[in-house]
Each structure stands twice: as structure tokens, then as C-alpha cells.
Amino acid sequence: MYLDMDDAPASNFLQTIISEDLAAGRVSEVVTRFPPEPNGYLHVGHAKSISVNFGLAEANGGRCNLRFDDTNPEKESQEFIESIQEDIRWLGYRWDGEPRYASSYFQQLYDWAEHLVRNGDAYVCDLDADQAREYRGTLTEAGRNSPYRERSVEENLDLLARMKAGEFDEGAKVLRAKIDMASPNMNLRDPILYRIRKVRHHQTGNDWVIYPTYDFAHGQEDAIEGITHSICTLEFEDHRPLYDWLLEHLPVSCRPRQYEFGRLNPSYTVTSKRKLKQLVDQGVVAGWDDPRMPTIAGMRRRGYTPAAIRRFCDMIGTTRSDGVVDVAMLEFAIREDLNENAPRGMCVLNPLKVVLTDYPEDKVEELSAPRHPSRVDLGERVLPFTRELFIDADDFREEANKKYKRLVLGKRVRLRNAWVIEADEVVRDDSGQIVEVRAHTVPGTLGENPADGVKPRGVIQWVSASHGRRAEVRLYDRLFNDEAPDKGDKDFLDHLNPESLRVVEQAWIEPALAQARPEDSYQFEREGYFVADRYDHSTDTPVFNRTIGLRDSWSD
RNA sequence: UGGGGUGUCGCCAAGCGGCAAGGCACCGGGUUUUGAUCCCGGCAUUCGCAGGUUCGAAUCCUGCCACCCCAGCCA
User: Fold this and answer.
1) pLDDT of A431 over the 50 cut
2) Domain A469-556 has what CATH class?
3) Strand B closer than 7 Å to the CB of A184?
4) Closest listed residue to residue A99, CA positions, set A30, A33, A29
5) How confident is the model over A366-394, as pLDDT tens digits?
6) Strand partners, A475
7) Taking the domains of chain A in order of start, what are their residue ranges?
8) CA A202 – CA A420 distance, rounded (Å)
9) Is strand B within 7 Å of residue A20 (CB)?
10) Domains A345-467 and A469-556 belong to one CATH topology
11) Neighbouring-strand partners of residue A124
């Protein structure tokens, strides 16, 4: 079903580092990790990170852990923990062992916090958030030492224990590393290690009222798990000195190294969790898994395949430069996969009745057609042909120039996988609207060109009016009509594409398509790739989502 | 005016002192019962800019410019 996944082994700066580490014996096995915070759904940007972390481990015979970085219970939930696991599995990756949780290391982390305090490397600070900001200085001015910076080890130990015991209110005290308030790197100006949060944690319940910050947790989690290469995105680069400082000042048994790569920014989309949440909350889309969302769940429902997403990640590469990737590349990846693997079928979105006047009323020809033009292994399907058919209204014109390769009055067209027909006359309703085309078949044209040498102008899809089935078809398009909807001071909501969804309630599909199971992909010939909706589709009420249209180079 | 990064074709991206890979997009042409696919061809005398080193530089040095990130008790 999927494309060949191990084409060219990805070569990038991370692989180069790993190869050198392996060759020099600095590491004996590659261990990476994918460390999402369970505070939202995974999106295409995470897919790249997953591909990088799992891919590197896989390519080097190593392991990759899944670790929930659940250090901030306020924003996290079990729902996200589950959706994240489902998405990673769906993408086709398997983490090593059981999922890990930062929260399962809380005691160890606390012990290490005491260790820092004992060595005079951390202190309890009573400054509130506003004061702390003031003391921190600015980008161009050094900060000032907190008045609580020189507390004794004994006092700090006592205060820390009391913080843990719940004796202080939220925000009343924090534990900070004692580094350098004048550092040009803001992250080294006595960063906060622990804060008081009297909220229930989804994994540890009410065991803790103090929670470690990302900085105090991440490197140590990596050390505990024996991570060799801790790969994250560029914005964490400034945190690396702190990451290293903590590991140097703690009795950890191994030294993971942090490396950063540029995050993925696809054009015509937004990927910030805040903005995606806004789209959901404001009802712009139907939910986190709306087919227009760049979430993994959304792309899945849209009909994107794991193979296409992985292929896309390989195509864009992994570097330290941050740019915008043309979504056309993602679209190429899914077309490439589906062109190769999706069975073909016929669907008429905008029906116009055609009556074949020479064709007997009750005759039904059970034609057979290949499911795929080149994949003979996919077999054939039965195509009932009858006197009354539907074609797409866009595929008929009373008159047209020679560039129009469809049905024209008095001219011929090939009905895909069936007869060549010739249009004779149109039937109109009271308002003058064409409601029917009367035509006749050209004899001997089943699988053959017309004997008289007059070739059809083109090929169009059709569905038997008596044997076809009704279906709802959801035509999705880009959610935004601006290449960079959230760049600069733009409001991304001002650039929504009003035509990102058009629902065709009464499309006609050939009978074989009604047999689709949810999440089966097809190419509706001449239209595009469509997937049977994961939730709403059934044989009784077929519902298809347009994944992506066919490449179209035609212009009038 | 602090620190950390990045700058190679419209986009992504190889390249690491020897004379600019590849993919996407785009433009031609061919095949075709999908205006699809497939096939063939085109597409950077030039690597942010300016100097310098060298027989030779996208690759080394110097200076400059542009853009991104950092002042959450978020990650």
C-alpha cells in the first residue's frame, strides 16, 4: 500500500555528527527521543521532528523513546497523551519500550535540586513574577542579583522542603539556579528551576505542588534515559549552555548532547498551537481533525498517507536554516503516493443527464474496467452501462473551440472505459436551462476507435443514472489564501480562504465506489484523489473527502 | 547599541580550495480511452554584498548588510 520508504538514506548534518560519534566510539548506540508536551494535537511540524528522531535512530540501528514532557500540568491532559500515541503509530513509527513521562522522574529531579542547593548552585527566591522580570535586566542591560541570592544552604534546603510540602502559595517562591545575572544569554540569569503550582497532575495526581521547569527537566530526563543525541528546534539553541551547565553540576551518569534543526514552516498554513486552537475554538474549522487542519489527525482525515508524509519529510531535508517550504511539495508527495496506489473510479460532481436514444431502455451492459491503469494487480471492477447516464455539466458545451476536449453538440466524446457517443440535441426547462443532452452511441467503439476515422475529442467520466449511487463529496482546499498568513503583524484570520470547503451533497458515484471502507483512497478520474471519510462514510451513505486535485495544466 | 543563529535558482537542498548535485514549481516537446501519469528537453558564467589570500574560492580571511530566535514562575 505504501511507497518504498527506504530510498536514499537521508544525509544531513545530524547524520554526519552521529556517524562521527559512532566512528570515534563516543557512543556505542544511538538513542534519541521525541518529547512532546501533551498539551495539544500533533501537527505537520511535529511530523518532521518525529521523522528526524525516529528516522535517525532507525537508520543507525538505535532506539527512539517517546517521552511526554509533562512538567506543566495546567495545560496538559490524558486526551492529548492518547492522541499523540495514536498519531505516531499511524505514521508508522514504534518507540522503544513503554512511553516515558517526565513526571515519573519528579523525585529524582527533586533530589537533584537539593544537590544543587547543597553545593550552593541554587537558591530559593521570594521575588514575585514582576520583580523577577525587573531584576532580570534587558537584552542590552545586565540584570541585578536577587536579594535572596545569598541565603545559606541550610535555609535554602529548609525553604525548598517547605515549598514541596505546600507551605507557600503559588508564585510566592521559586527555586533558581545561581549562575550569572549579567550573562548576555538571558537563560543564564539565574533561571527558574521549580515553581509552585497547586494543581492536580494528570499522571501524579496531588503528589506534587512544585513542578520543574523545562530547563531543569529536559537535560536530566535525557540523561536518565541515556539519550545520546537530544534533537530539538532552533529556538532552544540559547538554552544549550544551561542544558550543559545543569548536567555538569549534577551527578548524572551520562552526557547527552543537544543539537538543533530548523523547524518546518509550510506555506499557506499556520502551525502554532495557539492559532490552531483558535481556529477550533472559533468554529472556523470543525475540530482538531478537520481535514483542513495541518494536524496529523486532520491530514489523516483529509486522505494524506503516512508514506506521503514521511516522503515529504525526506524531501525537505533537515538543516539549520529556517525557511518556508512550499506546500506544493507536500501536495506532490501525496499525489505521488496516490497516483501509484489508489484505485480509480468515476464520480460526477455536477450531474447533467445524457440519454442515449439508440440504446434500449432496459439494457444493462456490465462492462469491466481496470482499477488502475498500470497496476494490473489491483484487478478490475464491474461498470454498468445504461441508456441514461450522468456526465459532468462542465463536460458539455453546445459549441466550443477545438481546445475543448469534451462533449460538444454534434461532436463525439469517449465515455471513459465505455462507448464513444455523439451529442444530437439538448432539452431545456422553462427557464432555458439545459437539463438533458440527447445523444447516440457510435457503433463498434467499445475498446476500439470509430471505424470511420472520426476520433472523439476527448474522454470524460460518467455514471449510470439507474445503477449509480448518490454520495456526499466534500471539496477541500487550502484554509488560507495567503502564502504566509501569520507573517509580520498580519492577522491570520483575515486571510482565510472562503472556499476552503464546498460540500456537494448529491454527487453520483459508480457502484463499485460504494463498497469503499472508511479511509480507503481513490482517484476519481479527471477530478482528483478522494478518501472515504474516516467517521461519516458507510456503504449506505457514502461520504468522500477530496484529498488533493489532479495536477491541471489546462486553460481555456 | 547585548547574545545566539542563518544567508547557494521562485521554494527546499547538495557542496567543506579545483572550476555549481538533486527535488518541487515553472516552460517546451512526445506518448496516452484520466487536459492525470509516464517520457524527453529547458531552467544559477553564479553562490547576501564589498574587499583580500591563492595558479585557482560558494568553499579560507576581513568588513558590511539582511532575516530569524532570546527579557514566561510555557515548552
Assistant:
1) yes
2) mainly beta
3) yes
4) A33
5) 999 999 999 999 999 999 999 999 999 99
6) A502
7) 2-266, 345-467, 469-556
8) 65
9) no
10) yes
11) A175
